[in-house]
Amino acid sequence: DAAAADQLKQLMADVAHEADVADLIEALDPEHRPIFIQLLGADFDFTALTELDENVRVQILEELPTETVVEGMRDLDSDDAVYILEDLDAEDRAEILDRLPVLDRAALLRSLDLPEESAGRRMQTDFIAVPAYWSVGQVIDYFRDAKDLPETFYEVFVIDPFYKLLGTLALDKLLRSKRQTRIEQILDSEVRRVAATEDQEEAARLFERYNLVSAPVVDENGRLVGVLTIDDIVDVIQEEAEEDIRALGGVGDEELSDRVPAIIRSRFPWLFFNMFTAFVAASVIGLFDGTIERMVALAVLMPIVASMGGNAGTQAMTVTVRALAAREISRRQAPRVLWREACVGLLNGGMLALMIGTVAGMWFSDLQLGAVIGVALIINMVVAGCFGVLIPLTLDRFKLDPAVASPVFLTTVTDVVGFFAFLGLAAWWFGIGF
Amino acid sequence: DAAAADQLKQLMADVAHEADVADLIEALDPEHRPIFIQLLGADFDFTALTELDENVRVQILEELPTETVVEGMRDLDSDDAVYILEDLDAEDRAEILDRLPVLDRAALLRSLDLPEESAGRRMQTDFIAVPAYWSVGQVIDYFRDAKDLPETFYEVFVIDPFYKLLGTLALDKLLRSKRQTRIEQILDSEVRRVAATEDQEEAARLFERYNLVSAPVVDENGRLVGVLTIDDIVDVIQEEAEEDIRALGGVGDEELSDRVPAIIRSRFPWLFFNMFTAFVAASVIGLFDGTIERMVALAVLMPIVASMGGNAGTQAMTVTVRALAAREISRRQAPRVLWREACVGLLNGGMLALMIGTVAGMWFSDLQLGAVIGVALIINMVVAGCFGVLIPLTLDRFKLDPAVASPVFLTTVTDVVGFFAFLGLAAWWFGIGF
Q1: A138-159 pLDDT per residue, tens
Q2: Can you name the CATH fold of A129-248?
Q3: What percent of chain B stands above pLDDT 70?
């Protein structure tokens, strides 16, 4: 097997980047993945594991011998190590941590103690900090001599003796300054810092807004504990957008590698809640069964009113949910947005009512029926536009995720109003009561 | 007015960052925005305009005197200048370009000649390039003496005399090397480069995959023409995710500052196409009007079958659309994914059929009716799951955007199959024909 391992190592020497190695692992049969990693031995960079789907990663880590995992974890950046450890169950995690060097273990435990999805979980604890009284020359000499610098870095942090952050110094600024310049003369003290316990989403918003590449992370006493870099933040930004798309589409955090039982767990709850919505809508129709029996055209046309309202509501809801996510909408603007959606509903509804009313009237040779469906459509589209704004705003005010819960509530409103407006109006107009 | 301007400048001295200035501008009345900028005069950083909504930016640029705009554009980074110019109409754009210094104009025109949404549109043409035979000391001395360096940079490019890119050199590597080291000894020649004409989305994928902070942009001859940095890419990543959410929700690229006519233009087309879907579904119901007339419970229950199918289909579609966007799904995997969705549809459908069938059967005191709705539900949910995968894959193969067109097609399928399966099955089982 030593020959096979050598051959494999030679082959893999060309696959330079961990993202490519990760693709290669995902292309393998599940049972071959741990074998592949063991064959590569010390040549396998555990960073590749962070690029895998969670399922694939957990499966591999469970099958690899603990000593292989511990060896691999030694060389990882602290943020990657936390990323891998946080998915494991408590027992496996403790076993690995126990065998790591004591300093690494302390740093990892500190990160893992922070809340999930906090900035501290994503931070790198390996960073460069220098005192303010050093000169530019001293810093550059330190870089040339120090052996254990982080792999890449974009700025140097300036601290006082108690590790309190005084400011930062970008590398390009350092390079442009004369050797004898003191750091305190050129440091940037207006640093946007992130609290370790802050939500990672908040940190991402700071990076986006101020076009940051890295930011210092401080503890509750203002002491520097780590650094967040843009590559971790890019992942956060993507995850957040992804979460909204999935929530609006009624799926949890399932992955393409998930098996059927996991998918069902992710999707069934949404379908279950929608079932109640469907029954509510059906019972509204049930109120008018006598009317429908005498005028079956109503049954044929009623889904049009409900579905057009649903679509218009979805449009307003999508815009509102995204504006909330981007913090673009405030309570102060709500009346203006609501009024605008009502106008849009009235105008779009009016145009569609004209078309749908005409077609329906000709289809059943009954122009009054055309007028009834037109009026019902306008009512439903105005209501849909308003609730498309009100539902996400209300959920947000009660600290619920608007993307998750809005669609179900919205469908309930547009179905109930659609069926009730159309069937009720028809029953009243044609005098065929309940 | 000079006093007012002075006062304003003093106030604004505290608002350091352009993102904050942009927020301030958006909070002003539209007619006050150009006045505010003119009062600030040379103290106003035009970069703030890139942080505004497109509508707000275009309105301001149209109202500002051309000389103010030209003055402001002089100090901008080239990528920000392109960002501002590309939204203007050809006439305004030409007027501004004409008055810019000849070198800036040439660089801007070259970027503007590239296709919209290409990497070249987002690149910065101001970068640092050094020859390979220089030493580390020479490069550092060059930084200390040069006056017109870009504002921030993370790496130095190494070129040959014909501006062909030989490699890159990260600043931290430069800082760690001895002064006498030659650049050619430490440059990184395995650079991931971006073609200027490449789609910005492709460039973003490269940044994400390889955790890049900046990347060189080359022309068709491999010559270095610019640099892409992560802050521009973060915007691209966000825009792309945003586009998918909006497309799935049936809205175009409308902004919160849009007025009613613009919103109607953005939303009416989707509603219009959905109207045809609604009529197709209605005509399926129309086939069974005789059946409904004799058994009005069918009209009450039929929306349940259609809407549960629609929801299940939306779940499968959402996952598929996102997998396509992330390039996670290949044609090779399609049969496996399809089979999995069919299983999920069968199992979720089975559970819901049991519940819905029981409730419906008891509601109308007709257990056979409960069985019929259960079977129709299972059929529709299996079909919905499969089409939720097939529709986006097919659109993608024909180079159409799956996020834009999938929802309409999917609704058509789930409505038609839902109504047809339920009403058809009922007509056959209860022997109440067409």
Answers
A1: 998 888 887 777 767 788 899 9
A2: CBS-domain (3.10.580)
A3: 98
Residue A67 pLDDT > 70, yes or no? yes
The residues that bridge with B165 in the sheet, in sequence order, are B159
Instruction: Tell me which chain B residue has its CA closest to the CA of residue A317.
Output: B249
Take residue A262 and report the two structure tokens written for it.
Answer: 């996991």
Q: Residues with Cβ < 8 Å from A220, sequence gap 6 or more?
A: A195, A197
- Residue at token pair 């890049």: B212
Q: Do B207 and A170 touch (CB under 8 A)?
A: no
Of B233, B286, B300, the CB nearest to A282: B300
| Range B129-230 classified under CATH 3.30.479.30 | no
Contact B132, B188 (CB under 8 A): no
Tell me which fold the domain A260-429 belongs to: Tetracycline Repressor; domain 2 (1.10.357)
| Yes or no, beta carbons of B209 and A271 under 8 Å apart | no
Cα–Cα distance, A368 to A423 (Å, whole number): 13
Alpha carbon distance A347, A80 (integer Å): 53
How close is the nearest chain B Cα to the Cα of A266, in Å? 10
Q: Which one, of B134, B195, B121, lies nearest residue B169 by Cα?
A: B134
What is the per-residue pLDDT across B72-129, written as a single tens digit (0 to 9) for each? 888 888 888 888 888 888 888 888 888 888 878 888 888 888 888 899 998 988 888 9
Dist CA A345 CA A317 (whole Å): 13
Chain-chain contact of A319 with B251 (C-beta, under 8 angstroms)? yes
Say if the Cβ atoms of A208 and B328 lie within 8 Å.
no
Dist CA A156 CA B138 (whole Å): 23
B415, B280 contact by CB (below 8 A): yes
In chain A, residues with a C-beta closer than 8 Å to the C-beta of B352 are 271-272, 275
Q: Pick from B177, B293, B307: which is nearest to A274 by CB?
A: B307
Cβ pair B171:A190 closer than 8 A: no
Please compute the mean of the pLDDT values over residues A356-384 and round it to a whole number: 96
**Confidence at residue A172, expressed as pLDDT on a 0 to 100 scale:** 85
Q: State yes or no: pLDDT of B233 exceeds 90.
A: no
What angle do the packed helices A297-325 and A230-248 form, to 10 degrees?
160
Give the helix ranges, DSSP H, for A211-259: 230-248
Flag if A249 and B337 touch (Cβ within 8 Å): no
Cα separation, B270 vs A222, in Å, equals: 52
ipTM of the shown complex: 0.79
The domain made up of A2-113 has a fold known as: MgtE N-terminal fold (1.25.60)
DSSP state of B49: G
